[in-house]
C-alpha cells in the first residue's frame, strides 16, 4: 500500500530525512516513533505531498510521487485517497461539524448534498458525536474536535489514513476518547500511519513500529520487539 | 513698493487642473454635437454652475426646486430661437468648458471674453457687459481702490476672487498692488469670508456684487466698477454650425430688444444706482425669509440628494469588495507574473487622489473614445479607489487565517481554488468585517468628491442651497444630521460584527 524508497529531505541545508526506506502493507498499522526533531512528521507530510523531498520516491495507494515539486493535479489525486489528521485538528471554524465532514465529498467528489449528509451523520455516529452535528468547532472540546476531524478525513473514503500526533494537544481523558476511535478503525482494517509519542498506543494497535532518529530509520519491526524495554 | 504676494491660501491641486486643461485643449473628435444633432434631439444642453449663484444661475430661495437667473432665461430664449428646449447641465465653474462636446452643447455662465478662450473654444458675440467691483466691509480701512497700492494694517490686503475668472486674471496682472490673491470656487464663498474677516475684500463682477448686496448688508462696494469686459457663450471648436446658429439667435435677441427687456426684468442696470443711494444714506439691508420655510423647501431636495449619496455608496462598495478580494487572492495565490501588476494596481490607486482618478475617468477616458455617464464614472472611480484599500485589508485577513486551515483543505484533496473559495476566503471575510464596515462609512462620506464630475450628491446640494440662501450654518446642521442618520446605523452594524467576533474568539479554546 505504501512504499518509501531512499527518501531524503533537505531543509536549509540540513538532511532532515536521509535514506528512509519502509513498506506499509495494506490493512496494517505503522507507528512512527522517535525523539522530537527525528523527522517523523516530515516523513508523514511527504507521504501526501504537503512537503517535498529531494531524493527518492514514494508510492502510496497506487500513486507515485517523485523527488522535487509535484504538479498540483498529481497531488490532488494522491490526497483524495490519503486522509490526514493533524495535531491541531484544523477543523474549519466557520462550518458546523457536519459541514466540516461533508464539504470535501461534495466539492471534490461531487457527492450530492443529501447523500453526503446522511453518510456524514453515519460517520459522526461512528465517532460518537452524532448529536453535535450542528455544533461549531469552537463549542466542542479538543477530543470532540479531533474526532470530528477523523470523521472529516474518513468521509473521503481514503485508502490510507495519516495521523500526525493526533493526541499530543489533548489531556489523558480526551486522548483516550480519540485513541479508542483510532484503534477501532485499525481493527476495521484501515491502513494507517500514526506519528505518536504514545508507546501504549503503539503496543496496543501497531503492526509495525518504525523508530526515526536524526532523519534515519534507526529500528523497524513488530511493536513488541522495538518497544521492549522502552518506557511508556 | 511691496511686490504682490500671489499665493493661493488653499493648497489647490494646480498641477492636476493644469494637466486636465492641457488635455482638454486637444480637440475632441467626433464627440461634439453639431447643430443637426441638437435639432434632432430637440434639446439644447447648456452648462453652468448653480453654486456660482445669482444673478446668473441660482436656486430660487423661495422655491428651492427651481433654478432661476438671467442666464436660465437667456438659455430658454436661445433654445426657443433654435426651435428646441433648453436643458440645464450642472458642472463646476472653472471646468465647465470641459463638458463641451461631452455633456453639454454650450456654456452660458458669465464666461468673460478672453483671448485664451477665443483660441480654445468657439465664442459667441457678447451677451452681457460687466465691470469689476471691489467689495469690502463697511468698517474696513480699505475705502478706495487707491488704498490697495499700500499695505493695510495687517500686511498685504487679502483679496478673494473666483478661480479662473477675469477678476483673478486682472488682479494677478497688477503687480503694483499690495495684495495677496486667494482663489475660491465660488464668489459667494468670498463674500462670506469678507464678512467673517478672513478676507479684506473680494473682487467680482459688478452684477454679482449688486445682486448679493441685500444678503451682505455689512459689505459695500469700494470705488467705482473698473476693468470691464463682456460675457460670451462657449461652444466646442468642432461645432461651427451650432456656434453660428447660437450667435445668430443672440443677434436677433439683441436687435429686437428682447435681451434688453430681459435685463430690465432682472434690474441689471438700475439696481446699482439704488445701492449707491442706499449706501450713501446707510439704509439697513432687507431681512431674510423664515428658516422654517427654507427648511420645508430645502429638505425634499436634500433628501433626494441623500438618495444619490446612498446610490453611489451601495453601488460602488460591493464592486470595491469584489475587485479588492480578487486582487488580494491574486497577490497571495495567483501566478507569479501577475503579482507585480496587482501590486502596481494597488499602489497607483492608493497613492493618487480619488479626485484625480475621477477626473481621469470622466474627462480623459472620452479622449480614448470611452465616454462614461457621470454617475457611472463616479461609481467606477469610487469602486476602483476603494478596491485598493479593500485588497490590502483582505490580504491581511487571508494571512491571518492559520496555515493549518489551508493544509487541512489541501489534505482533503481540494484544489487551491476550492480551498480558497470554501475555507480561506470565508474565514478572512469574517476576520476583516469590522475594518471593511468602517471603510464603507468612509466611502459613504467620500462620495461628496463626485460633485467634481457633475454628480449632485448631498454635500453639493448643501453647498448650492447654502450659498443661494445664505443659511450656511442652519443648512449645515440639517445636512450633517442627514449624514449621521445614514452613517450611524452602519456604525452600529460594524460594532455588532465586532462583538460577535469577540464572543466567538472567547469561546474558542486556546
What do these coordinates show?
The complex is a heterodimer of chains A (232) and B (510). Chain A has 232 residues and is α/β, with parallel strands linked by helices. Chain A has a domain at 2-93 and 163-227: P-loop containing nucleotide triphosphate hydrolases (Rossmann fold, 3-Layer(aba) Sandwich). Chain A has helices at residues 40-47, 72-81, 97-109, 113-126, 142-154, 172-187, 199-205, 223-227, and strands spanning 2-11, 14-24, 29-33, 55-60, 63-66, 82-85, 160-164, 191-195, 208-213, 216-221. In chain A, a hairpin with a 2-residue loop joins strand 1 (2-11) and strand 2 (14-24). In chain A, helix 3 packs across helix 4, helix 3 packs parallel to helix 5 (142-154) and helix 4 crosses helix 5. The mean pLDDT of chain A is 91. Chain B has helices spanning 14-24, 35-41, 70-82, 115-120, 166-173, 187-195, 206-211, 240-255, 258-265, 270-281, 291-333, 339-351, 354-364, 374-400, 403-411, 416-431, 433-446, 458-469, 472-507, and strands at residues 43-48, 58-59, 67-68, 85-90, 106-107, 122-123, 128-137, 157-162, 179-184, 201-205, 219-231, 234-235. In chain B, helix 14 (374-400) packs across helix 16 (416-431) and helix 15 packs antiparallel against helix 16 (416-431). Classes of the chains: A alpha/beta (232), B alpha/beta (510). Chain A binds chain B through residues 48, 50, 72, 75-77, 79-80, 82-84, 86, 88, 90-94, 103-104, 107-108, 138-139, 141-142, 149, 152-153, 156, and chain B through 402, 404-405, 407-416, 418, 422-423, 426-427, 430, 504, 507-509.
Amino acid at each position: 500500500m505504501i512504499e518509501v524508497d531512499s527518501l531524503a529531505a533537505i531543509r536549509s541545508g540540513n538532511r532532515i530525512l536521509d535514506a528512509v526506506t519502509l513498506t506499509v502493507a495494506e490493512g496494517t498499522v505503522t507507528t512512527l516513533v522517535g525523539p522530537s526533531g527525528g523527522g517523523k512528521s516530515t516523513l508523514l507530510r511527504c507521504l501526501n505531498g504537503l512537503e517535498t523531498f529531494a531524493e527518492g520516491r514514494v508510492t502510496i495507494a497506487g500513486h507515485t510521487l517523485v523527488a522535487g515539486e509535484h504538479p498540483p493535479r498529481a497531488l490532488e489525486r494522491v490526497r483524495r485517497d490519503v486522509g490526514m489528521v493533524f495535531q491541531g485538528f484544523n477543523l474549519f471554524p466557520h462550518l458546523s461539524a457536519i459541514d466540516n465532514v461533508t464539504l470535501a465529498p461534495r466539492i471534490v467528489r461531487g457527492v450530492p448534498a443529501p447523500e453526503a449528509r446522511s453518510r456524514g451523520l453515519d460517520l459522526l455516529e461512528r465517532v460518537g458525536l452524532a448529536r453535535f452535528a450542528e455544533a461549531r468547532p469552537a463549542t466542542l472540546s479538543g477530543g470532540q474536535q479531533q474526532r470530528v476531524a477523523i470523521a472529516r478525513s474518513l468521509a473521503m473514503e481514503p485508502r490510507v489514513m495519516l495521523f500526525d500526533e493526533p493526541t499530543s494537544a489533548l489531556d489523558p481523558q480526551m486522548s483516550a476518547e480519540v485513541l479508542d476511535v483510532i484503534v477501532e478503525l485499525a481493527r476495521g482494517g484501515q491502513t494507517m500511519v500514526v506519528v505518536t509519542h504514545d508507546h501504549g498506543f503503539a503496543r496496543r494497535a501497531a503492526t509495525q513500529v518504525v523508530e526515526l532518529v536524526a532523519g534515519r530509520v534507526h529500528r523497524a519491526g513488530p511493536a513488541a520487539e522495538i518497544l521492549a524495554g522502552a518506557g511508556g | 513698493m511691496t511686490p504682490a504676494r500671489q499665493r493661493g491660501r488653499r493648497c489647490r491641486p494646480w498641477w492636476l487642473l493644469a494637466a486636465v486643461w492641457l488635455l482638454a485643449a486637444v480637440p475632441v473628435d467626433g464627440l461634439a454635437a453639431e447643430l443637426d444633432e441638437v435639432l434632432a434631439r430637440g434639446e439644447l444642453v447648456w452648462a453652468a454652475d448653480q453654486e456660482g449663484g445669482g444673478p446668473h444661475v441660482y436656486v430660487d430661495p423661495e422655491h428651492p426646486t427651481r433654478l432661476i437667473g438671467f442666464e436660465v432665461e437667456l438659455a430658454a430664449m436661445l433654445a426657443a430661437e433654435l426651435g428646441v428646449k433648453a436643458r440645464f447641465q450642472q458642472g463646476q465653474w472653472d471646468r465647465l468648458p470641459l463638458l463641451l462636446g461631452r455633456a453639454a452643447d454650450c456654456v452660458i455662465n458669465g464666461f468673460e471674453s478672453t483671448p485664451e478662450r477665443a483660441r480654445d473654444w468657439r465664442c459667441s458675440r457678447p451677451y452681457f457687459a460687466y465691470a469689476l467691483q471691489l467689495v469690502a466691509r463697511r468698517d474696513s480701512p480699505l475705502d478706495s481702490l487707491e488704498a490697495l497700492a499700500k499695505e493695510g494694517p495687517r500686511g498685504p490686503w487679502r483679496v478673494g476672487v473666483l478661480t479662473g475668472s477675469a477678476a483673478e486674471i486682472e488682479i494677478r496682472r497688477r503687480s503694483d498692488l499690495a495684495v495677496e490673491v486667494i482663489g475660491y470656487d465660488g464668489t459667494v464663498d468670498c463674500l462670506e469670508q469678507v464678512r467673517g474677516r478672513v478676507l479684506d475684500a473680494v473682487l467680482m463682477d459688478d452684477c454679482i456684487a449688486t445682486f448679493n448686496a441685500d444678503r451682505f448688508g455689512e459689505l459695500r462696494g469700494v470705488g467705482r466698477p473698473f476693468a470691464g469686459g463682456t460675457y460670451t457663450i462657449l461652444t466646442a471648436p468642432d461645432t461651427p454650425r451650432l456656434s453660428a446658429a447660437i450667435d445668430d439667435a443672440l443677434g436677433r435677441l439683441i436687435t429686437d430688444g428682447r435681451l434688453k427687456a430681459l435685463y430690465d426684468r432682472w434690474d441689471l442696470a438700475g439696481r446699482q444706482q439704488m445701492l449707491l443711494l442706499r449706501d450713501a444714506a446707510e439704509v439697513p439691508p432687507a431681512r431674510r425669509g423664515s428658516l422654517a420655510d427654507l427648511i420645508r423647501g430645502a429638505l425634499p431636495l436634500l433628501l433626494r440628494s441623500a438618495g444619490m449619496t446612498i446610490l453611489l455608496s451601495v453601488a460602488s462598495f460591493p464592486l470595491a469588495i469584489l475587485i479588492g478580494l480578487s486582487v488580494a487572492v491574486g497577490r497571495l495565490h495567483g501566478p507569479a507574473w501577475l503579482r507585480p501588476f496587482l501590486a502596481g494596481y494597488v499602489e497607483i490607486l492608493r497613492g493618487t487622489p480619488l479626485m484625480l482618478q475621477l477626473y481621469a475617468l470622466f474627462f480623459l477616458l472620452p479622449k480614448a473614445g470611452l465616454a462614461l455617464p457621470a454617475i457611472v464614472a463616479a461609481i467606477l472611480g469610487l469602486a476602483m479607489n476603494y478596491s485598493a484599500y479593500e485588497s490590502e485589508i483582505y490580504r491581511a485577513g487571508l494571512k491571518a487565517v492559520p496555515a493549518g486551515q489551508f493544509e487541512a483543505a489541501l489534505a482533503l484533496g481540494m484544489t487551491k481554488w476550492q480551498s480558497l473559495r470554501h475555507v480561506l476566503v470565508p474565514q478572512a471575510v469574517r476576520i476583516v468585517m469590522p475594518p471593511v464596515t468602517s471603510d464603507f462609512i468612509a466611502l459613504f462620506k467620500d462620495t461628496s468628491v463626485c460633485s467634481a464630475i457633475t454628480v449632485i450628491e448631498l454635500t453639493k446640494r448643501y453647498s448650492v442651497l447654502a450659498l443661494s440662501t445664505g443659511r450656511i450654518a442652519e443648512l449645515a446642521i440639517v445636512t450633517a444630521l442627514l449624514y449621521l442618520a445614514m452613517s450611524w446605523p452602519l456604525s452600529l452594524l460594524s460594532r455588532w460584527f465586532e462583538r460577535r467576533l469577540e464572543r466567538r474568539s472567547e469561546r474558542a479554546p486556546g
